Amino acid sequence: MEKAGIAQRIRDEKGNERYDYFQSLNDAETILLIDSWRDQAALDAHHASPMMDELAALREKYDLHMKVERYVTDEQGMPAGDQKFIRK
């Protein structure tokens, strides 16, 4: 993704706010992708782009399997009880 420039092209897409990979310290075969978009419309446009065919080809080539978890920004903000655990 990085070597082929695909990751940067995704980062450059309109509405992309973050596209970063992280490797597990416990399992070198596990990679976490944080993929953040301005809104659902931006994500839908990304999913409709020809780039998705390139991603699918890489998944097939390297026999990659995915588990997806979706997180949504908490519009209420962090509760006061949780803030005491955050060091700023």
Automatic annotation (TrEMBL):
Q: Which Pfam families match?
A: ABM (PF03992)
The superkingdom of the source organism is Bacteria
Q: What InterPro entries does this protein's entry cite?
A: ABM_dom, Dimeric_a/b-barrel
ABM domain segment(s):
1-72
* Record's protein name: ABM domain-containing protein
Source species, please? Limosilactobacillus panis DSM 6035
